Amino acid sequence: MSPLIDKARLIAKHNHRNQSYGIYPYFYHIEMVVNIGIEEKFHEEWIIACYLHDIVEDTSVTVNQIKNTFGYEVSRIVSDVTDPSDLFNRKDKKQSVYKKIIKSKGINQYGSLAVKLADRLANVKHSKYSDDRKYLMYKKEHEKFKDALFTPTEFSNSPDCIYSLWDLLDINLR
Prior knowledge:
The protein is 71% helix and 2% strand. The protein is mostly helical.
């Protein structure tokens, strides 16, 4: 691992230290997302963003701090996948995130979409075996999620991991 990836890992582990993901420490979820990114051969910036994808939403760390430490691309991805704090309804929060991801597809070469797909896949895989209620929620949301973010014509220009992640998500939601 690179020094920046190691730094992102330590920052995520420290800042999520008092949070939980069901019966697990929250860092379990972070590592699941990162491992999906590693399996899919994400770029270094995308792996860093995987470590930090929930940090703005769930801790006092700001997008500006991420930008100062890890650069613009990582901060943009993290910002894109972060639920806005001024919205209280899950549907509205998700729609806001989807709009940011769609807008940024050309700017960061699909980094925001890749991280969001890895995050969703980690949540689906975990809930499939441990939380039936959440799994059913993801299954119910999948059509709208896919309608908002899936563009079949973009695959000739997108990294291979995008198609692979959509495929894995579909398989895990059958």
